[in-house]
Amino acid sequence: MDLKIKDVCALLGIPEKTLVSWIKEGKIPAYDVRHQYFFNSAEIQEWVLKNKWPVSKNILDMALTNIPVSLNKLLKKGGIAYGIKGHDAVQAITNSISVINLPAGLDRQTLTSTLLEREEMMPTAMGKGIAIPHPRNPIVSDIENENVSLCFLEEGADFQALDGEKVTSMFIVLCANARRHLEILSRIAYLCQQEDFMALIKKQACEKDLLEYIETKEKEWMKK
After folding, report:
1. Domains and CATH numbers, the chain
2. Cα 78 vs. chain centroid, distance in angstroms?
3. Pairing with 153, which of 15, 89, 206, 217 sits 20 to 30 Å away (CA)?
4. Model pTM?
């Protein structure tokens, strides 16, 4: 719990009165500690994704770590898979884990169980046909073993998305710690707000086009 009310108000660009109202209505995750509200930065980032809140530079900066994250490099390690079958989250995740590249020493069955457990607790569908399955806690210990896989489903799968749209694309995120997880989510959130990127996702573009687009956007971000 590393954020206070003033921090979240500044990140989201909303008045304190609005945020407190959301807390009382259960619309945003918060923790009441001795009559003061605190927030977990990773949970706020997931809230931003699920509610399609505009990603400001402040939110992206919040996630930056000492060792920069490159979504392009992580996707090259995890790979992009096409034609994944599955009509629901269980089938889609299970079938995806059977084909994607995994860090050395990570058991596929263990990872599948971990992801499904997290999915049962809280669906990872973010809307617009996208889900971001990830373990509840970091499952790799070394940053060098982190990776992200993008899996395109043959047909839409029901992930209980808030917008009711079936998931056709999944980013499976495996990272070493909560801070890194937050930055990876920030990168994905930023990309998913770009219409041209979403057009590539919708048509399930080839790996070359997707990686080139992400590399270009990351270079632009580093210049800001």
Report:
1. 3-39 (no CATH), 71-223 (3.40.930.10)
2. 15
3. 217
4. 0.73
